[in-house]
Design goal:
Number of domains: 1
CATH superfamily: Vaccinia Virus protein VP39
Strand order of the largest sheet: 3-2-1-4-5-7-6
Structural class: alpha/beta
Distance between the termini: 45 Å
Radius of gyration: 15 Å
CATH class: Alpha Beta
Helix content: 40-55%
CATH topology: Rossmann fold
Number of helices: 8
């Protein structure tokens, strides 16, 4: 791995140490607008059970918690530093049990089948060790008729080509790409009963 790529991964991909702390601060500012937009596209309802994969410093988690006063928000992130920052940013929700945050990998989610109504990931798919396995695992934990949104800013490095096909291959339907001022988003649903 090149030195530059290693620094970027330690800052933004799987943040660790001082670079991870600084990366979290930067991500909190840079990803807020796209997180807001992706949440709008998912049409989150007050009682939804929502999962965010790769929540970073927890800005999306914070926005989601405001949308689901009678629901719940869960999240996984592979970075211990991001879990720490997100728990601090969402301390009240974590204390009351409305928000659950774990350090975990997307390829083996610690949830029962059909646990979530909606799932989102912002600028994280491109850092997953096995994106196809991660998408299949997300599909497993979503209820029939649930919705997924994968949002990307221009600086994410994620290409658009092949994304809708990858989501369909993981078992989702109605996959479509939506252009945003902040980047782009891929939306899809889980097959109904």
């Amino acid at each position: 791995m090149s030195v530059v790529k290693n620094i970027l991964m330690r800052s933004f991909g799987r943040p660790t140490g001082l670079l991870g702390r600084v990366g979290g601060i930067i991500m909190a500012r840079m990803n807020r607008r796209i997180a807001q937009r992706v949440i709008e596209l998912l049409d989150i309802q007050p009682s939804d059970r929502v999962l965010e994969v790769g929540f970073g410093p927890g800005v999306g988690i914070q926005l989601l918690a405001d949308c689901v006063p009678s629901g719940s928000v869960s999240g996984i992130d592979a970075s211990a530093e991001m879990v720490k920052q997100a728990k601090a940013r969402n301390a009240m929700g974590v204390r009351t049990g409305r928000i659950e945050l774990r350090q975990h990998s997307v390829e083996d989610l610690p949830y029962q089948p059909a646990s979530f109504d909606k799932t989102l990931a912002i600028n994280s798919l491109q850092t997953w060790p096995d994106a196809a396995a991660g998408l299949r695992e997300i599909r497993r934990v979503m209820r029939p008729g649930g919705e997924i949104a994968l949002g990307f800013t221009p600086h994410s490095g994620q290409v658009k080509e092949g994304l809708t096909e990858a989501i369909v291959a993981a078992g989702f339907t109605d996959a479509r790409l939506v252009e945003l001022d902040e980047g782009f988003c891929v939306l899809a649903t889980t097959p109904g009963d």
